[in-house]
Amino acid sequence: MQPKYCDIFWSFLKVGAFTVGGGYAMIPLMQRELVTKHGWMGEEEFMDQVALSQAMPGVFAVNMATMTGYRLRGKGGAAVAIVGNVLVPIVFILLLAMFFRTFRENPIVDRIFMGLRPAVVALIAAPVFTMARNAKVGWSNVWIPVASALLIWLFGVSPIVVVLVAALLGYIYSLITRNS
Amino acid sequence: MIFFQLFYTFLIIGAFTFGGGYSMIALIQGEVVGHWGWMTAQEFTDLLAVSQMTPGPVGINTATYAGYTAVVNAGYPAWAGVCGSLLASLAVIIIPVTLVMLVGSWLLSHKEEPRVATLMKVVRLAVVGLIAAAALGLVGVESFGSVGLNKQFIVSVAIFAAVFIFSWRYKKSPILLIVASGLVGLIVYSI
User: Fold this and answer.
1) Contact at CB, B64 and A167, closer than 8 angstroms
2) pLDDT digit string (tens) for B133-179?
3) Nearest CB partner across the interface for B160, out of A113, A122, A148
4) ipTM of the complex
5) Chain A residues whose beta carbon lies within 8 Å of the beta carbon of residue B106
6) For the segment A90-149, what is each residue's pLDDT rounded down to a tens digit?
7) Domains of chain B: which residue ranges?
8) Domain extents for chain A?
9) Which of B14, B81, B167 faces A122 most closely, judged by CB atoms?
10) Angle between helical axes of B2-16 and B58-73 (0-180°, round to 10)
């Protein structure tokens, strides 16, 4: 039996609305919705989709929604999955963005944000080390992340250029290792 | 004009983000704060705090907020900001969504292809550097206050160290750490 559009929509709405902390935090909830509850795919298929959504450019959660929706019900399925996934977060952020300015000047809010800002820096810095391990950074290749960080931070090179150059280097390297 | 620039910028950001929300933060920082100056560094840090606390993918949240703020900062009314935010969120997903639909199934069956694997390995290494640069870019007077033996700098360094350890070593949830740091800020700066 073909999954209903409204079931796909509802599943991704829940995933989008109830996870805080970004796309990867959605994995367990997605697994419960897609594999355990609805049985739309097997465990292994789900893991393959996770790996592929990470490998593709863009927002991980949206890639997962696209792939799941598309494989279940084609383009329409992809569309309802994406809209479901981002609807609640977008409304939430819009309301915040609209009213943030009005209470931004409030001295209490100001104190809270003085505490928050260094925390945000730490929250961005911490995954660097986890990701370095996952990307298998070692003595032979540590120059790549170090060089990219310095190029962006000290020399103001656009991160887009760095990704492009890295992809090009990777391609050349794959040609060399294949021929040898 | 700003709508065209916004659309184009976020289209490119979406196409070149590899490795999830945090690397998208690095790209948005480079374009929105660095290149276009649509937001100040402090507004950007505030946006990151907000987008870690609200539900949803960090990439979408950041794009939505940045789209709104860029348009409103350029002097347009709030409704135009709403259009800007929707435009940015749409632009950021167009290329990846098209790619996933076009080549997703092909890649699922060729995931062991060595050339793709090598290319991705190098890109992933660069992404580690990208995120490090994003964190380094946030280190400044806006986040820590001026360097010295003053209250704000000492408190900020202490919060940074504590959150880093709890996030990296003990894998505490970002929302918990954000709420705790906000409370610490409220208490420490009120006395």
Assistant:
1) no
2) 888 888 888 788 888 889 999 999 999 999 999 988 888 877 788 88
3) A122
4) 0.80
5) none
6) 999 999 888 877 777 788 888 988 898 898 888 888 878 877 887 888 898 999 999 999
7) 2-109
8) 5-104, 128-179
9) B167
10) 160
